[in-house]
Amino acid sequence: MTPALPDGYRLVRVPLSRNDEFREVDHLAFGYEPDPETVAQVPDYIEWDRASGVEAPDGSLAAVHASFDFELPVPGAAPVECAGLTWVGTRPDQRRRGLLSAMIADHFAHCQERGEPVSALYAAESSIYGRFGYGSAADELRVTVQRGAALRDVPGSEDLVVRFAKLDAGAHGALVERVHEAAGRGRPGWIRRSTDTLRATALADPPAWRQGGEPLRLASVHDADGEPRAYALLRRKEEWVDNIPKTKVVVRESAAVDAAAAHRLWSFLLDMDLTASVQSGPLPVDDRVRSLLVDARDTAPKITDNVWVRLVDLPAALAARRYSGPLDVVLDVADTRLPANAGRWRLTTGEVGPDGAYDLQATRTEDDADLALDVRELGAAYLGGRSLAAFADAGLVEERRTGALQAASAAFAWPLAPLCTWGF
Ligand SMILES: CC(=O)SCCNC(=O)CCNC(=O)[C@H](O)C(C)(C)COP(=O)(O)OP(=O)(O)OC[C@H]1O[C@@H](n2cnc3c(N)ncnc32)[C@H](O)[C@@H]1OP(=O)(O)O
Fold it and tell me: Record-annotated residues binding acetyl-CoA (predicted)?
């Protein structure tokens, strides 16, 4: 069901020629205005063939959104085609008239046309997107570690060397993307930057973004052949208290291909002269540093929601990932926004693969349901980082056949916690 727009309003595609208007809506919606230096230094990373909006009766843009053509890494399988919803904004003088609701319906229709079974997003406010069937599918962890904090030993760490330089996007871009890709292998949610402009934006560093810190630096870890194994994009914020240096190291993003590289990187970060602490970038909740720190309690851990997932084509999306255990259950799915997903589905796994994981098929059935849930909870569990049993415990999944919840929770779970390392 497509929500109605107010009289005279209409959904439109927004071409590059309306870039200024599109951005004006965004600035008004989010309450900021980039200075000319920032505009000049941050690439235009909108994919203009995927930008849309709502026109008011006078032809002006009242609301906008766009999406990215992503591949979303899922548990145990090749990434699934995914529309990364972004740049969502309604002008403050046009809000609460159903413009976002209409844009989301339009977005889902475009996903279906393009054959994208899944959509993902970062939520500006976490109360917005559940109503549209998006579920919070991953958490991100940030820690602040005191200088000199001890790490448990990892063999091979001492054989690696660290290089430290002013970030040069041209010279370092390939290193960052190569390590980022290798570090994320097997980790659900680890979306790669899919275009040159997104890759360039990840390294953009206009002065307005520095919040009093130095320009971005790159700390990179290399093996004996010079091959990069880990990196951190960071800046130091100089601070002195009573003549004592208390500079903070603030990491924008870091990644490491293995434990030795992570150990070497953190050893370097925790031993920088004049500093007092290291604030991490977004980490998976099971990040190595939690296991390696001798005193992991004193790290002021903060957890927030990371990427949100929406199953647009339920059977295709569920078949695109793999599962940790055998399963034969009937789900009764509620989905008011996309009725084609609603109703009863039998989920059946096949033979176990050599990696211990299972393929799965979702087919329509008239059989009685074993579990009843909203598509939002299915999206939340999709990357393997949320427990269906925990949702049941919160009253959000109903078990109608004893044992079905245990089996489904075990099958949907995945050994590595999901994470996307960058907001889009
Ligand atoms: C993926 C991303 O890009 S995240 C970025 C989202 N953008 C922002 O946060 C920018 C500032 N906010 C805005 O521009 C607007 O308030 C938007 C885009 C969040 C909502 O746009 P609107 O056109 O006002 O939404 P619309 O009128 O369709 O409301 C749809 C429903 O969402 C609810 N809703 C809208 N905004 C919010 C919010 N911020 N928090 C909680 N609920 C909200 C409405 O109350 C309405 O609920 P209902 O269906 O129960 O009646």
Answer: 96-101
The Å distance, Cα 118 to ligand 1 centre, comes to 21
Domain with CATH 3.40.630.30 in the chain: 10-116, 141-303
Regarding the domain with residue range 141-303, which homologous superfamily does it belong to in the CATH classification? Gcn5-related N-acetyltransferase (GNAT) (3.40.630.30)
- 196-203 and 169-184 are packed helices; what angle lies between their axes, rounded to 10 degrees? 100
Determine whether 108 is an active site residue. Answer: no
Per-residue pLDDT of the chain (424 residues; tens, 9 = 90+): 568 999 999 999 999 999 999 999 999 999 999 999 999 999 999 999 999 999 999 999 999 999 999 999 999 999 999 999 999 999 999 999 999 999 999 999 999 999 999 999 999 999 999 999 999 999 999 999 999 999 999 999 999 999 999 999 999 999 999 999 999 999 999 999 999 999 999 999 999 999 999 999 999 999 999 999 999 999 999 999 999 999 999 999 999 999 999 999 999 999 999 999 999 999 999 999 999 999 999 999 999 999 999 999 999 999 999 999 999 999 999 999 999 999 999 999 999 999 999 999 999 999 999 999 999 999 999 999 999 999 999 999 999 999 999 999 999 999 999 999 999 9
Residue 126 contacts residue 302 (beta carbons within 8 Å): no
- The answer to pTM > 0.95 is yes
409 labeled part of a ligand binding site: no
How many angstroms does the Cα of residue 84 sit away from the middle of ligand 1?
Answer: 17
Segments in 297-403 forming alpha helices (H): 314-320, 375-381, 388-393
Which of 128, 134, 136, 308 maximizes ligand 1 atoms within 8 Å of its Cβ, making it the mutation to test the pocket?
Answer: 128
314-412 domain in CATH 3.90.1720.10? Answer: no
Which residue is closest in CA terms to ligand 1's atom 18?
89
23 is in an annotated binding site: no
Ligand-binding annotation for 97, yes or no, is yes
Residue ranges, CATH 3.30.1050.10, the chain: 314-412
424 is catalytic: yes
Beta strand residue intervals within 123-246, DSSP E = 135-136, 139-142, 144-146, 161-166, 217-222, 228-237, 240-241, 244-245
Q: CA-based angle 204:208:212, to the nearest 5?
A: 110
What residue spans of 154-246 are helical by DSSP H? 169-184, 196-203
What is the dotted CATH code of the domain comprising 10-116? 3.40.630.30
Ligand 1 atom nearest to 121, measured from its CA: 1
Distance 100 CA to ligand 1 centre (A): 6
For residue 88, which atom of ligand 1 is closest to its CA? Answer: 3
